[in-house]
Amino acid sequence: MLVTALGLHCLSDGVACSAVMAVGITSALLLHKHREGVFLSRLMLDFAWLLEEILLRQRDVGFSGQLRALVQHSLILLGDCLTLYHLSPVGDVLVVPKASAEALRELGHHSAAILPVFASEAVGACAIRALLMEMLPFLGVTVGPSGIVLSQDELHRKTLELLRLLPPNLLGLQPCQPLDCRSRDIVDKLLLCGLLEAEEPESERWVCDLAPRPFCKGQPWAGVDFTDSDSGSEDEVPKRCFKLSEPQGSPGFLLFLCRLLSPVLRTYARAAAFLERPSWPQHEAAYVEALLQFLAEEDGFEQPNRSLALSSLQTFKEMGVLEEVRTPAGPLLHLAQPFRSSASQRKLEAFIQQFAQP
């Protein structure tokens, strides 16, 4: 256990020391912010913005030079993934990512280097998204982002659920920090970057609040009802709330952060959907290969790679979804009894999918 913890620390420190390359920044912008295409002039502005955000987080970059030259060099390296349209009347270039699986996989490979830089903010953004999806049926059509109030307890609860779902090494986070502390650090970073603003209470009743629940000391999915019963909460209303905000000079930052983590979450959600495919029990090696094939079958899937597949497998073991039995032929996987019904499998998939931005 100690050796594993030390190894995870070394991995986290190594990721933190890794320099971000220009092609990674460009790929992240094209894949997660401008999937439908963007003018070169706009791409340069966003490159400068994202570069500044990276440097503000004390991360190194592995390049220097003029902005236009950096972006153009990145586009040359990504040439097989892009289509460029030279528009003479406006004197600009339209950059459009190709929709092929190979192009999306290449862009996803390069943009993966950006996730550890914004891992905490991305987790917080996905937690906010999950809360907004819960609140959506109760919001009026005229309510804008600035009119939405989130309770601190609810935000911490959702953040903890996501932190327990994803292993820290996948996010480049330190493994020894308690989850409660990490969750509060994430909220602090959301406040610092301007995505949240503290809301002073005018009364003890919140119009856009959700039914609060205390911190989940155990497993977050333990609070998910995998039966057909409904339950409510009668705990006290939280006292502190936050208001959504958009940082100046960073339009669409919340959506960008959500999409940074989406490839990971989509893999986990598809792995949950895959549970109904195999005949159980199944050898672990065969399960992984079948899962990779299942992920590759989905149109537009960015990263059906072995690392994420193995990560989802480990998480499902820790959650108790899959039970491992050692045999001479290798680990044998059994689907746990509570997850053998299609209804429970769909609830597990929905639990993961709530955090994922399409």
UniProtKB/TrEMBL annotation:
Alphabetical list of InterPro entries matching this protein: GPAT/DHAPAT, GPAT/DHAPAT_C
Keyword tRNA-binding part of the UniProt annotation: no
Keyword hit for Phosphoprotein: no
Keywords: Acyltransferase, Transferase
MF-aspect GO terms: acyltransferase activity
Top-level taxon of the source organism: Eukaryota
All copies of domain GPAT/DHAPAT C-terminal, residue ranges: 2-298
A Pfam match: GPAT_C
Record's protein name: Glycerol-3-phosphate acyltransferase 2, mitochondrial
Organism annotation: Grus japonensis
Organism placement in taxonomy: Eukaryota, Metazoa, Chordata, Craniata, Vertebrata
